[in-house]
Write a structure and sequence with these properties.
Length: about 450
């Protein structure tokens, strides 16, 4: 046979099988009940797939002499207990922190309860507002979600705070982010000053407020928070009686959402045309003269006002159609915010950053042209930390009225009527008023300046 010819004959000799023992499958235990969250793994552990990764909890068996033996009761109760302790951390993408069986070890939840108790007492004594307390409560709830209820304070790392900041930054802008960071720091500062924490918590270099440049860029992106006079007239023309009165309070007195929602009837003097009402947010004194248009709008709003659902809200100027106040701790959920948004959408003029609070910005911007800053601050309820405020005992009402009158003239400008000049008037105005002027007019000479030297 030539070298180019290849044999096609197949060998009939049977192949030898590889020696070795065959693997027998491990008999897995059944779930103790239908909705049990864990499944058994061949390694002898209970398992659960969370966020794409398999996590193990407890043991159902152990290997003895190379053979898996089931534990008494399959260890499912212990595994379930471990799962319940750690699941919040795993589902949130965190590694479960150390937990302590010692009752004196401070956890995130223990700090939260102590902090809220202290703030609740401050609320009862009217040292803080309901809005401030609600914001603190929401912040501590977010700490529980981020770190876990049973996480030890001593076990928190700078990475935990970096992760918290990143999560908040995903849903909030720089201003709200800065406020949240400050509140978180306040919670842990309380723990240290109250002796609950041995040393100040180390937040790390990243857990800080956005820089001033970031704030400026954010403000520029959102645009100016100003309404034109024409837009304000459109809003008032389309609004309900209650919202119309609030719009006028916003541009007349620089009222914000919470100011309108918490305004009591006792603070309004419709006959005299004044409002004397400290700001709910800061408690700073505020006094404002009312325009006739604002007075009429308030009268209509009070006349159409629904009955309050609760007796404690019966003294408020504004009540929703559901019998509830127009203010809430969360400004974004405030009825004032929502109704204004509907109005802006209806008029097709809504954009990011433009809401009811822009009326307060508008008032301040227009009022500053009066250059009477102390009077403007008193109307708006702004603090004046200057030395002048220490010596200033009061501001005259006439100054306050001058400010609101200026804003009124901006909103309702008075057109000046042109004066009519008759032919006789023109002739009279052309006549020279003195003989000397007449002589100069006839000769075209310039009036001569004479000096007399004395002494």
């Amino acid at each position: 046979m030539s070298n180019s010819t290849r044999s096609t004959t197949k060998s009939t000799t049977p192949r030898k099988r590889r020696s070795g023992r065959s693997k027998s499958k491990t008999e897995l235990p059944p779930k103790p009940y239908k909705d049990f969250p864990l499944t058994p793994h061949a390694s002898g552990a209970w398992q659960k797939k969370i966020r794409g990764q398999t996590r193990y909890f407890g043991k159902w068996g152990r290997r003895v002499n190379g053979k898996m033996e089931r534990l008494p009761g399959d260890g499912w109760k212990e595994a379930l207990d471990q799962y319940d302790r750690e699941k919040d951390d795993w589902f949130a993408g965190r590694t479960p922190g150390a937990r302590s069986a010692e009752p004196d070890k401070l956890t995130v939840n223990m700090l939260r309860e102590r902090f809220l108790t202290a703030k609740s007492r401050a609320l009862d004594s009217k040292e803080i507002t309901q809005r401030t307390y609600s914001e603190y409560r929401a912040t501590t709830d977010r700490l529980i979600t981020a770190f876990g209820k049973h996480r030890l304070i001593d076990n928190l790392t700078t990475g935990d705070f970096e992760h918290l900041r990143a999560e908040v930054a995903k849903v909030w802008g720089p201003v709200r982010l800065a406020n949240e960071i400050q509140r978180v720091r306040t919670v842990f500062k309380y723990g240290y000053e109250a002796g609950l924490i041995d040393k100040p918590v180390r937040f790390g270099p990243q857990f800080k407020k956005p820089s001033k440049s970031v704030m400026r860029k954010h403000r520029a992106e959102k645009g100016t928070k100003l309404f034109t006079a024409g837009v304000i007239h459109k809003l008032a023309g389309k609004a309900s009686s209650q919202l119309k009165a609030m719009i006028y309070l916003g541009v007349n007195c620089g009222f914000g959402n919470a100011d309108c929602g918490s305004l009591p009837l006792s603070a309004v003097d419709l006959k005299g045309g004044w409002i004397t009402f400290p700001r709910p947010k800061t408690g700073i004194a505020r006094r404002c003269p009312l325009w006739p248009e604002t007075v009429e709008a308030l009268k209509a709003a009070i006349e159409d006002r629904p009955n309050a659902k609760r007796e404690t809200d019966g003294n408020l100027v504004f009540i929703t159609k559901y019998g509830e106040p127009w203010t809430k701790a969360d400004v974004a959920d405030s009825p004032v915010t929502k109704e204004t948004r509907k109005l802006l959408d209806e008029l097709k003029i809504h954009r990011e950053g433009l809401g009811f609070y822009a009326l307060r910005h508008t008032f301040r911007t227009v009022a500053d042209a009066t250059r009477d800053i102390p009077a403007v601050r008193l109307i708006m309820g702004h603090a004046d930390g200057s030395i002048d405020d220490v010596y200033r005992e009061h501001i005259e009402d006439s100054r306050l009225k001058a400010v609101t009158d200026h804003v009124h003239s901006w909103l309702w400008p008075v057109e000046k009527k042109p004066t009519k000049t008759t032919a006789k008037g023109k002739a009279e105005s052309a006549k020279p008023k003195t003989k000397k002027a007449a002589r100069s007019q006839n000769t075209g000479e310039t009036a001569e300046v004479r000096l007399r030297i004395v002494g």
